[in-house]
Design a protein that fits this description.
32 helices, 6-stranded mixed beta sheet, single chain, alpha+beta
Length: about 700
C-alpha cells in the first residue's frame, strides 16, 4: 500500500516565512476566515507555556492555479497547501506580522495581541493596553524588531516613573527572550504526499472537518467543486464577496473598472446562498446533503464512483451557475422585492425567503419563459407571501423541495402554467381565514422588528404610498436606505411605556411592547406625546396637524386606528388594531395581485449597515456601558438565549460559542434583518434594556 503521509516538525518562523513567501498557501477547498481574537490570544498563551496546540496538515503539491496565498504576496510557487489547521496558521501569521487578513464578511481584519511582561499574560489589545506602559500593546512589534521593542518598553516605563530593580530588569529581559523564542516553537505537520490524488485530499479534508461539525452542507459541495471545477468555486466566492462592495470599491480591488456588483439593500450574499440556488436550479434539489451525494456519485453497495453520473451532475451545476449569477436575472429579482414594498434588509425576517424566491424567479425566467414584467409581479407576490407566512422558516429545505417538485410538474416553456400555479399556491396559502385569524394572532408579539406580519404591514404602507403617523411625510422616506437617514424616525409606542407603567399598572415588557402598540413617526412627535395618555395627546395632535377630513381618514386607515381608539382600554385597543393592521396588509397584497404596480427603483449599492447611531461591543465594554458578567438577551423577551459578557470583552452564548461583535453573536442565532446593537438587550432587575437605552443611561461603575 503506498504511503499517504509522513510527519515533519516545523518551527513557527519557518511556517510564517513560508506563508509570506507563498510556499505555504491556502487551497481553494478552504475559506479565508480567522478565529475570534480571544482564540488567537489563547493560542499564543499555550505556545508560550510550551503546551501542545495540535497538528497541521499540508498537501505537498505545487499547483499555482489551485492555491491562494494567505499573505496576498506570494513570491514563489506553492509547495504546500493547508488541508487542516488553516485557522491557526492564518491567525498566527496575522498576529505575528501585524497584517490584516479577510474575515467571514470578506473584510480586512487585523488581530492585535497584547502582552504583560510582569505577569507574562496575553490579552486582546484594547484602548487600556495601548495606554498602559506596562503592556506591549502589539506583540508583532517584538517579532518585527525585538530589541527595539524591548528598549521602547523600558523607555515607556521610565517615562512613567516606574523604576525597576536590577533583578526586575534582568527578569524582564528573560521574559522578552522567552517571548521572542516563540518563533522556535515547533509544530508537528502531517504531510500528504504529492502523488496522492486530489479527490482523496478533498475526502480527507471533509472527514477531518466533519468530525468537529465545523462544516455545513454547502461546504461539502464547495469542497467538491474545488476539486473538480475550481473555476466554479471561484465564481461563487466572487459573487458573494462582490455583494458587499460597490462597483467603485470592487474596481479598486481588482485594478480594473467594474460596472456592476450584486450589492443590494436586502442581502449580503453568502457562498451558501449561491450554492443553494445553483443546486435547486441545476439539480432540482433543496437538500444539499443529497445534492452532495449525487456529486460524489458513489454506489451505496460497492462504494465505486460512477464517473459518467458524476460528470452529468457537475454539468448541471456548470449550466446553472451562470444563470444564478447573471446580472439581469439578479437585478430584476431585486426589482421584484422592491415591487412588493420592501425597502431594506431591516424588513426581511428570513434570508431563506429571499433565496427561495430567487429560485422561483429563475425557474419562471429560464425554464418557463415568463415575460419579465409579468414575472416581476408574480415573484413580488410570492415573496410577500413567503414573508407573511414564514414559508421558509423552520424546515426550509423540505418546503423548497416541495415547491421544486410542484413546479416540475409544469411543462417546460409553459408560462401560463407557471403563473396559474403561483396564483393557486397564493390562494390556498393566504386565505380569508388567514387574514381574519392567523395574521392578527401572529401580531401577538413584543418585537415589531422581528414580526413577519408587522414587517409586511410596513411594506404595505410603503406600497400604498402611506404617510407617517400624523406627519406630512411618506413612510418610504422612513424606510428607504437610498435616502439620507432622518435621525429619530422609527416605531414609537401609541400607549407610552411610562403611562402604562405608572397609570395602567402594566409592568410586563411583553405587554408594553406589543407590536400593535407601535406606529412609524418621528422623535419630535414622540416628545410631544411624551408620557401622556392617548386621550390627552390624540385630540391635541388632531387639532395641530389634522389637516382636512380626507387626510385624517387616510391616517386612521393607514395606521389601523380603531374608532375612538384613544379612549379604549389598552388590551381592547390591541385586539382591534391587530385586525386593522391585517386588513391594511391584505389590501396591499391584493392590489399587488391586481395592478402589478412597480415601486420606484432603488440603487442596488445602498449600504446594508444600520443608519442609527450604534456602538460596537468593544466600545460598550471599553467605556463601561457593559460589564463582565452582564447577561444579554434578545430584545424580544419571548426569545430565551443564554448570553453573557466575558472578562475578555466578548459575548459567550450557551457557555461555548464566543463572539467578538454584537453582529456576529446575532448572526449565530440566524438574525440578519437587524443589527446586533438593535437585537441585544441588557438584562436588568426591571426587565430588559435595549443597548441604546443602556448608552443613554451613561457608563456604569466597574
Amino acid at each position: 500500500m503506498p504511503v499517504i503521509f509522513k510527519t515533519i516538525g516545523w518551527e513557527v518562523e519557518q511556517l510564517v516565512a513560508g506563508v509570506q513567501q507563498g510556499s505555504i498557501s491556502l487551497p481553494d477547498l478552504q475559506r479565508p476566515f480567522v478565529w475570534p481574537a480571544t482564540k488567537v490570544r489563547d493560542l499564543f498563551d499555550s505556545m508560550y507555556r510550551g503546551y501542545p496546540v495540535g497538528t497541521l496538515m499540508f498537501w505537498d503539491v505545487a499547483e499555482e492555479d489551485s492555491s491562494r496565498a494567505i499573505s496576498g504576496a506570494a513570491e514563489i510557487a506553492a509547495a504546500h497547501q493547508i488541508v487542516d489547521g488553516q485557522q491557526r496558521l492564518t491567525s498566527l501569521y496575522a498576529a505575528m506580522k501585524g497584517l490584516a487578513v479577510q474575515d467571514d464578511t470578506y473584510r480586512p481584519k487585523s488581530i492585535k495581541i497584547a502582552f504583560h511582561p510582569f505577569t507574562e499574560r496575553f490579552e486582546v489589545a484594547t484602548a487600556a493596553t495601548a495606554r498602559s506602559p506596562e503592556w506591549i500593546d502589539d506583540i508583532s512589534e517584538v517579532f518585527r524588531s525585538p530589541y527595539d521593542a524591548q528598549d521602547d518598553f523600558f523607555d515607556a516605563l521610565q517615562d512613567a516613573g516606574r523604576e525597576l530593580t536590577r533583578e526586575q530588569n534582568r527578569g524582564m529581559r528573560d521574559v522578552f527572550n522567552k517571548l521572542r523564542d516563540l518563533t522556535k516553537y515547533k509544530f508537528e505537520v502531517v504531510h500528504i504526499q504529492k502523488d496522492v490524488q486530489k479527490k482523496l485530499v478533498a475526502d480527507i479534508f471533509v472527514r477531518i472537518n466533519s468530525e468537529g461539525m465545523n462544516l455545513k452542507a454547502y461546504d461539502y459541495i464547495l469542497t467538491w467543486l474545488s476539486v473538480f471545477w475550481p473555476e466554479g468555486r471561484d465564481r461563487i466566492e466572487h459573487f458573494a464577496r462582490a455583494s458587499r462592495m460597490t462597483p467603485e470599491r470592487a474596481s479598486e480591488i481588482v485594478g480594473q473598472r467594474i460596472d456592476w456588483t450584486p450589492k443590494n439593500p436586502y442581502l449580503a450574499v453568502e457562498t451558501g446562498h449561491v450554492v443553494r440556488a445553483v443546486v435547486a436550479l441545476g439539480q432540482n434539489r433543496a437538500k444539499l446533503i443529497d445534492a452532495y451525494a449525487n456529486l460524489q456519485a458513489k454506489d451505496r453497495t460497492t462504494g465505486q464512483v460512477d464517473g459518467d453520473k458524476q460528470e452529468r451532475e457537475l454539468e448541471k451545476l456548470r449550466k446553472a451557475l451562470p444563470i444564478v449569477t447573471d446580472r439581469v436575472n439578479w437585478t430584476e429579482f431585486i426589482r421584484s422585492i422592491q415591487t412588493a414594498g420592501f425597502r431594506s434588509h431591516a424588513g426581511i425576517t428570513s434570508n431563506m425567503n429571499l433565496v427561495a424566491s430567487y429560485v422561483i424567479f429563475l425557474l419562471g425566467r429560464t425554464r418557463y419563459s415568463v415575460e419579465l414584467t409579468r414575472l416581476r409581479s408574480l415573484v413580488a407576490r410570492w415573496f410577500f407571501m413567503a414573508q407573511l407566512t414564514g414559508r421558509y422558516t423552520g424546515s426550509s429545505e423540505s418546503q423548497i423541495q416541495k415547491d421544486l417538485d410542484m413546479f416540475a410538474a409544469i411543462e417546460v416553456g409553459d408560462a401560463d402554467g407557471f403563473a396559474n400555479l403561483v396564483d393557486t399556491t397564493l390562494a390556498v396559502t393566504v386565505t380569508n381565514d388567514f387574514w381574519e385569524f392567523n395574521a392578527p394572532q401572529s401580531l401577538v408579539s413584543s418585537n415589531y422588528k422581528l414580526s413577519p406580519v408587522y414587517q409586511c404591514y410596513l411594506a404595505a404602507l410603503n406600497y400604498l404610498d402611506a404617510g407617517m403617523f400624523m406627519l406630512k411625510m411618506k413612510v418610504r422616506e422612513w424606510m428607504d436606505p437610498a435616502l439620507p437617514a432622518v435621525k429619530g424616525l422609527e416605531g414609537h409606542h401609541l400607549f407610552p411605556r411610562h403611562y402604562q407603567e405608572s397609570v395602567l399598572g402594566i409592568t410586563d415588557a411583553k405587554r408594553i411592547n406589543q407590536v400593535a402598540n407601535f406606529a412609524p413617526t418621528d422623535w419630535h412627535t414622540n416628545l410631544q406625546i411624551s408620557d401622556r395618555a392617548p386621550a390627552d395627546y390624540w385630540p391635541e395632535l388632531v387639532v395641530e396637524r389634522g389637516g382636512d377630513a380626507t387626510w385624517m381618514d387616510k391616517q386612521r386607515y393607514w395606521h389601523a386606528l380603531p374608532e375612538n381608539w384613544h379612549r379604549l382600554p389598552y388590551d381592547e385597543f390591541l385586539a382591534q388594531r391587530r385586525k386593522l393592521i391585517a386588513a391594511v396588509t391584505r389590501e396591499a397584497f391584493e392590489r399587488l395581485s391586481q395592478d402589478g404596480h412597480v415601486q420606484p427603483a432603488l440603487p442596488l449599492d445602498v449600504p446594508q449597515e444600520a443608519t442609527t447611531d450604534e456602538a460596537s461591543l468593544a466600545t460598550l465594554v471599553g467605556e463601561g456601558y457593559l460589564l463582565p458578567g452582564d447577561q444579554l438577551d434578545p430584545v424580544d423577551p419571548e426569545w430565551v438565549v443564554d448570553a453573557v459578557v466575558t472578562g475578555d470583552g466578548t459575548i459567550q452564548i450557551e457557555g461555548i460559542h464566543e463572539f467578538d461583535s454584537l453582529d456576529d453573536a446575532a448572526r449565530y442565532l440566524e438574525v440578519t434583518n437587524i443589527s446586533g446593537f438593535e437585537f441585544w438587550a441588557l438584562e436588568q432587575d426591571g426587565g430588559l434594556a435595549p443597548l441604546a437605552e443602556v448608552m443613554a443611561s451613561g457608563p456604569r461603575d466597574r
